[in-house]
Specification:
The complex is a heterodimer. Chain A has eleven helices and ten strands. Chain A is an alpha/beta fold. Chain A has a six-stranded mixed beta sheet, with helices on both faces. In chain A, strands 2-1-4-5 form a four-stranded antiparallel beta sheet, covered by helices on one side. By secondary structure, chain B is mainly alpha-helical. Chain B has one domain. Chain B has 15 helices and four strands. Chain B has a two-stranded antiparallel sheet. In chain B, a hairpin with a 2-residue loop joins β2 and β3. The two termini of chain B are about 25 Å apart. The chains are: A alpha/beta, B mainly alpha. Chains A and B meet through α3, α4 and α5 of A and α9, α10 and α11 of B.
């Protein structure tokens, strides 16, 4: 009876509206008046009893480049899933800026609101050219009927050229993306994120499988993004993390173990014990 | 102008118009203007047969749009085809009220079943415009609802194909029942007039052929326009990496649903053109095997090319006509063998033979 009453009460909470009555996420204006672009508070996600995220609290400041490290199974990917709307948290709040509650929206709406995600495995559209890949990712009206007659304007083409030069693929613009090297695909994917002009970029293991030169290029690329966009990088490669990180967060068993400058974190005895101790 | 170039290269435009002219104008001319004994003569019996093939080609076009470009393998397109055909069949039945075997105002099968009045869902079908509207609208609505539920639940791949098979099978069983009101097992047949023209006359058949060929030509251009637009690029992106498309801020549901519904409408149109030329529509058009054959046409011709569907349906149906006359027992073995051969050795179909390797 009591549980039933609780559930019923949820329906008429005065501080909330029903999901389907929410206005669509159209406004591109993000309220970051408190300097924080992403709030994750008390997030818990469990799969069949296993807690992938356990009371996770994480704040990302506006314009920050944040690295997140952690052993396999620490919950890094699940955290990304929660932010991008792929997984709904069991409890907790995810706020993008001050006002947007991300737990209420689906993947494409969240992407449209300004959260870009790069997957671990490079996923570009292999049968499309580099130009078409960027065109598809571009920030614009993405409804079906608009797409039927959409043409690239000169301004949009300039924007594409600008991103092409940032990611260094200007010469490959008409090449089919499937023919690019592994590293180039990763950069193209970052370029696709940039085309969406996101406020927040989530980058999952960007340098896995890259050569040393490619890693250096990627580090430059990511650090160059940081002041204009907020960037969250999940990475295993400690040398790479050291080369780009200002602030590092260590995840362990679904919650934050330590946070701070790279040196501080590496000196933290708890961190050494659970993560860095294992071979680093 | 640039848009036309995106659709086809100048050479390809030339070929398209050449083939279209041959199909729309050439065949009727060869039929009427040449002597019966001449090598170039198209005999009278060939005209409705070719018309039938063109209807199949339209289905293959619809199938290629959804399978080749959106990566959605439907094994239930026969339903949309049959529904379009039934709508046309209902008009044809109503247009000969009083001229049936029983001289009744009702269609013959209703008299036979001792029905006293027309069921409500037959109302309006004596109007040609309404019937044509329903031939497109009924498949569209069914496809929209079915697609909405399936795509919203993110059902894809084999699971989606199986559900479409189930759909066509279920509707076939429904239409087989006499109580459903569409002539049951026998379907609708014994048609006489279309808009007052006698369907048995050769001129009517020739006109139907020309209309079918023109509709196919226009449909091809519309499909080509669709797949070379940004819409088409998003569709192909959904086929290749759907989650990436979502994270780019697109809603794949809307895109798939649009392509899917449009494909169903094309099938309905094909069905409506098919029935007056073939003279019968019955539930066997909804047999799961028929829908699978439609997929084979596209696979044989080459997916994701549009042309491939047209070529494939022509080749397979041409062979079917020949085989079922000369070696009727071997046809299904041959069809199965053809499908295996194409899958193993020509993954990009017959059209793939003429394309450079890297332009997949």
């Amino acid at each position: 009876m009591n549980a039933w009453l609780e559930r019923t009460r949820e329906f008429w909470r005065r501080d909330q509206v029903f999901d389907f009555m929410l206005p669509p996420l159209q406004s591109r204006e993000l309220d970051v008046s408190h300097g924080v672009v992403l709030y994750l508070e008390n997030i818990t996600v469990s799969f069949d009893g296993f807690k992938a995220l356990n009371n996770l609290n994480l704040y990302v400041n506006n314009g920050e480049l944040r690295c997140i490290i952690g052993a396999n199974g620490a919950g890094k990917t699940t955290m990304m899933d929660v932010i991008t709307g792929k997984t709904r948290p069991d409890t907790g709040a995810v706020f993008f800026g001050q006002k947007i509650d991300l737990t209420k929206y689906n993947e494409s709406e969240i992407a449209a609101a300004g959260v870009g995600r790069k997957f671990q495995k490079p996923t570009v559209f292999e049968n499309h050219t580099v130009l078409e890949n960027l065109e598809l990712a571009m920030q614009m009206n993405k409804s079906t009927f608009v797409s039927l007659t959409a043409r690239l304007s000169g301004e949009q083409r300039d924007r594409i050229d600008e991103v092409l030069s940032i990611i260094g693929l200007t010469e490959q613009v008409y090449l089919r993306a499937g023919l690019l090297s592994h590293g180039q695909k990763q950069w193209l994917e970052i370029g696709m994120l940039l085309m969406q002009s996101p406020y927040l970029l989530l980058v999952d293991e960007p340098v896995a499988g890259m050569t040393q030169q490619e890693i250096e290029r990627t580090a430059e690329l990511l650090t160059s993004l940081a002041p204009r966009h907020s960037v969250v990088v999940v990475e295993h490669d400690m040398a790479f993390v050291r080369s780009i990180a200002r602030t590092v967060t260590v995840l362990h068993e679904g919650s934050v173990l330590a946070e701070g400058k790279m040196d501080e974190v590496q000196a933290n005895p708890k961190v050494i014990e659970v993560y860095l101790g294992e071979g680093y | 102008m640039t848009r036309l170039r995106q659709m086809h290269s100048p050479l390809a435009w030339g070929m398209v118009f050449l083939v279209a002219a041959l199909g729309i104008v050439g065949v009727p001319l060869l039929n009427t203007m040449t002597e019966a004994g001449s090598t170039w003569h198209v005999p009278d019996y060939m005209v409705p047969l070719l018309g039938k093939f063109l209807c199949y080609a339209l289905v293959a076009l619809a199938m290629d749009l959804i399978w080749g470009y959106a990566g959605i393998l439907s094994l239930g397109h026969g339903v949309f085809f049959a529904l379009g055909g039934y709508a046309m069949g209902m008009y044809l039945m109503r247009s000969m009220a009083g001229l049936g075997v029983y001289r009744s105002e009702l269609p013959d099968f209703m008299v036979f079943l001792d029905w006293k009045e027309l069921p409500w869902f037959w109302y309006g079908f004596d109007n040609f415009g309404f019937a044509m509207f329903m031939a497109l609208a009924v498949p569209a609505v069914l496809a929209y609802i079915f697609g909405f539920l399936a795509f919203r639940s993110r059902i894809k791949g084999v699971y989606f194909s199986i559900i479409t098979q189930a759909m066509t099978f279920a509707l076939m069983l429904l239409f087989f029942r006499n109580e459903t009101g569409f002539g049951g097992n026998n379907g609708l047949t014994d048609f006489k007039f279309l808009l007052g023209y006698n369907l048995q006359e050769h001129d009517t058949r020739l006109a139907l052929y020309v209309i079918t060929a023109s509709v196919l030509f226009i449909s091809y251009l519309v499909c080509r326009w669709l797949v070379t637009s940004k819409f088409g690029r998003v569709l192909m992106a959904i086929r290749d990496a759907e989650s990436r498309v979502m994270f780019c801020g697109y809603n794949p549901l809307q895109y798939k649903l649009f392509a899917w519904t449009f494909s169903a409408i094309l099938c309905g149109l094909a069905g409506a053109l098919y029935v007056p030329q073939v003279g019968i529509i019955n539930p066997s058009e909804m047999m799961p095997a028929n829908s699978i054959e439609m997929a084979i046409w596209v696979a044989v011709g080459g997916r994701g090319t549009l042309i491939g569907g047209l070529v494939g349906s022509g080749v397979v149906n041409g062979m079917k006509s020949w085989f079922t006359v000369s070696y009727p027992d071997l046809w299904l073995y041959f069809l199965g063998g053809l499908f295996i051969f194409v899958t193993l050795f020509l993954p990009r179909g017959l059209v793939g033979l003429f394309k450079r390797k890297d332009s997949a």
